[in-house]
Amino acid sequence: MDGREFLQTKSQSYDVIVMNDVFEHIPVDEAENMLSLLKNALVPGGTLVLRVPNMSNILGAYSRFIDITHVTGYTEESLQQLLTLAGFRNHTLVLPPKGFVWRSWRPWAPWCGWNLRDLLNTCLHRFLFFLRYSKAPQCVTKNIEVYTHRPLEDPPA
Q1: What are phi and psi of 37, to 5 degrees?
Q2: CB neighbours of 46 closer than 8 A, spacing ≥ 6?
Q3: Is the pLDDT score of 43 beyond 90?
Q4: pTM: predicted TM-score of the whole model, two decimal places
């Protein structure tokens, strides 16, 4: 039994489904159907968590082609468009924290709490997108992680 057959037998069975580093292996022409199956497997109000390589990142092509089984790449906008087409609502991107993060601070490495890597990554991407496009994406990390929800009531067909 493959994943699609399994999901067809699990109508409204799960509160949360997590798919980390899986969705980029599904061909784009099958992606909406897979999302519909996932939505059907969630209870109304249930949450789907997806993480995929971020094609908006300057190393996105490397992430896309490092594994020959990766068949699709997504930006935050294309992923959210696909989720909306499949009937999911209230998409929330997970973004790195801004400013000082106390839980990352160490007395022997006081610079750790400032998230300098994320800050430099964001500044670099904003500058590069400024040179070419009018607006930079919100998420420029290596991966896009999004939380989305099955509506409490599905719209009439």
Answers
A1: -65, -40
A2: 14, 15, 16, 17, 149, 150
A3: yes
A4: 0.81
